[in-house]
Write a structure and sequence with these properties.
The radius of gyration is 15 Å and the shape is globular. About 50% of the residues lie in helices and about 10% in strands.
Length: about 120
């Protein structure tokens, strides 16, 4: 549903996968291994991604760099904050931050690192 079609009672709360990793090759490999590979097996997700301009080439081998970069906010705390802020600036009421846990357990350590930055910008 387009944002302008939502009534005032609606709540828009997108999810943003995040990964605190500044090396592009490592970040994309971890994102593919622990996030995009799973979602790219689901027809509803690939259908939505097709509507956003992605195609079969983007879905191969866990996702193209372009697709991984669009789905997972990776980098340092400021890079993740910028992606969360993009959702809020586009009209989101809240953003659910989902850490790509990878080698970091459940992702709690990433959330601990991100919390001060995200809360300070609220």
């Amino acid at each position: 549903m387009p944002l302008d079609a939502m009534d005032g009672a609606a709540l828009l709360a997108p999810e943003q996968a995040v990964l605190l990793e500044t090396d592009p090759a490592k970040a994309r490999a971890l994102a593919r291994e622990h996030h995009t590979r799973f979602y790219l097996q689901l027809p509803n997700y690939t259908g939505n991604l097709r509507r956003l301009g992605f195609d079969d080439a983007d879905f191969a081998e866990g996702g193209s760099d372009r697709l991984v970069d669009a789905i997972v906010a990776w980098g340092d705390e400021d890079a993740v904050l910028r992606r969360v802020r993009e959702h809020l600036d586009a009209g989101a009421d809240h953003v659910a931050v989902q850490p790509v846990a990878a080698h970091r357990g459940l992702g709690l350590e990433q959330l601990r690192e991100l919390a001060p930055v995200l809360l300070a910008s609220a």
